[in-house]
Amino acid sequence: MADLHEVRAEVGGRVWKVEVAVGQAVAEGDTLLVVESMKMEIPLAAPCAGTVQAIQAAEGDMVEEDQVLVVLAG
């Protein structure tokens, strides 16, 4: 069974764009989604290669710092 990795928001803000879909394979460093905070766009990168298991925020959602946004299996 693959290890699960929770990818958390580095800052609070609004999800501006979701770049991946559930089931999609990603490489380490790929952008998973972009959070907008204080008029800055902050990309959330995959910490490792794997497959997207869950996306826990949608475009337009407000998120808090350290909130789990994406779950990867890898």
TrEMBL record:
Gene3D superfamilies to which the protein is assigned, alphabetical: 2.40.50.100
Keyword Transmembrane: no
Keyword entries, A-Z: Biotin
Source superkingdom: Bacteria
PROSITE patterns given in the database record: BIOTINYL_LIPOYL (PS50968)
UniProt-listed InterPro entries: Biotin_Carboxyl_Carrier/Decarb, Biotin_lipoyl, Single_hybrid_motif
Protein name per UniProt: Acetyl-CoA carboxylase biotin carboxyl carrier protein subunit
Organism: Piscinibacter gummiphilus
